[in-house]
Amino acid sequence: xxxxxxxxxxxxxxxxxxxxxxxxxxxxxxxxLTGTKKGCDHGQCGACTVLIDGRRANACLALAVACDxxxxxxxxxxxxxxxxxxxxxxxxxxxxxQCGYCTPGQLCxxxxxxxxxxxxxxxPDLTSDPPLTPEEVRERMSGNLCRCGAYxxxxxxxxxxxx
Length: 163
Prior knowledge:
Layout lengths: L1 E7 L2 E7 L5 H8 L18 E4 L2 E4 L12 E3 L12 H8 L9 H13 L18 H7 L10 H12 L1
Parallel strand pairs: 1-5
Antiparallel strand pairs: 1-2, 3-4, 3-5
Helix pairs in contact: 2-5
């Protein structure tokens, strides 16, 4: 067992944890933050996406002990109190979910993606910071899968928020 300190959604947490515990399991089982979903548990679906120090990451692949001292933001921490994050509002307004299982990961990934500058694999000029187009959003969000196929509305919600 090892003691770690995390800042989770703005609150300091000191925990004694097994070094083999994933960040996902720590969030869900120890802290009760069940918004972060366990999809594939192999880093392939993105349902567990959280922000670690502002950068998106698959919580199922991150060991909790490796996050010692980090600031973690889950879907529960995106809102400012009772005021939803603009992405959360846009997802509702654009009907960007169906079953909702992937939505927390999609929201965290989109929040991280909007803060990431620079080109992607579909950017024609790799020396520029391209405008956010549907193609750019689809490429940048490609690590988050939606089994229901709500991609059109997810992209629209992200573009609406980016404006």
